[in-house]
Amino acid sequence: MKSRELAVIGAFEFVPDTFPDDRGMFVSPYQEAAFAEAVGHPLFPVAQASHSLSRRGVLRGIHYTLAPPGTAKYVYCSRGRARDFVVDLRTGSPTFGTWEQVELTAHAPRALYLPPGLGHAFLALEEDTVMNYLLSQRYRADNELALAVDDPAVGLPVPGDAVLSERDRAAPSLEAAPLPEYEACLRAAAAFGAP
């Protein structure tokens, strides 16, 4: 498995080896040894595993949590194709406001690790795109926040005709949203062994 740190400090991309044959393909999108070597700690204890199914043109996000408790994510695409965005929303972070996009696809698998405090969004590029998430915290509606994905202050290259949920359409701007604090996010990550 190959890995690289994204432009957003603490976020990583993982590209596992694939094993295709005449039956199809086998892949392991998460591998503990490779993750720990790249990130510097083992994966967080998984409190919840989730997946979403989206039709082409659906844009989900920007979603994030405050710390405490903070939620870390390990995300990959098991069907279809998506343009995935990682955004540093942690005030005081050396990369605050920085974002990076990565194409996630079932045919050329890769995964992303997002530590607590990072924003996450994706645009489904194919019908029936399935995104899978391993989460360090269970879903709690009161801790799940959204930021306007089309906010010019963030600057994501998203299409104006994307299909958004009511919640995402009503999300506040970067200036108006409550944002996580970098040091609090580091403390949240330290609770599961991060340096």
Detailed description of the structure:
With 195 residues, this protein is mainly β. It has a single domain (2-18, 26-190), classed as Jelly Rolls, CATH 2.60.120.10. Helix content is 11%, strand content 37%. The chain has helices at 32-39, 166-169, 182-190, and strands at residues 2-5, 12-15, 18-21, 24-27, 48-54, 59-65, 73-79, 81-88, 99-105, 111-114, 118-124, 129-135, 144-146. The strands form 3 sheets. It has a 6-stranded antiparallel beta sheet with strand order 1-2-10-7-12-5, covered by helices on one side. Strands 9-8-11-6-13 form a 5-stranded antiparallel beta sheet, with no helix packed on it. A two-stranded antiparallel sheet has the order 3-4. β3 and β4 (24-27) form a beta hairpin. The radius of gyration is 16 Å and the shape is globular. The two termini are 22 Å apart.
Provide a compact summary of the structure.
The chain is mostly beta strands and 195 residues long. It contains 3 helices and 13 strands, in the order E-E-E-E-H-E-E-E-E-E-E-E-E-E-H-H.
Which key phrases capture this entry?
195 residues; mainly beta; Jelly Rolls; five-stranded antiparallel beta sheet; RmlC_Cupin_sf; RmlC-like_jellyroll; dTDP-4-dehydrorhamnose 3,5-epimerase family protein
Give the SSE string: EEEEHEEEEEEEEEHH
Radius of gyration: 16 Å
User: In terms of structural class, how would the helical and strand content be classed?
Assistant: mainly beta
Instruction: List how many beta strands DSSP finds.
Output: 13
Q: What shape does the CA trace take? A: globular
Total domains, how many?
1
InterPro entries: RmlC-like, RmlC-like_jellyroll, RmlC_Cupin_sf
Organism: Nonomuraea insulae
Family: Belongs to the dTDP-4-dehydrorhamnose 3,5-epimerase family.
Protein name: dTDP-4-dehydrorhamnose 3,5-epimerase family protein
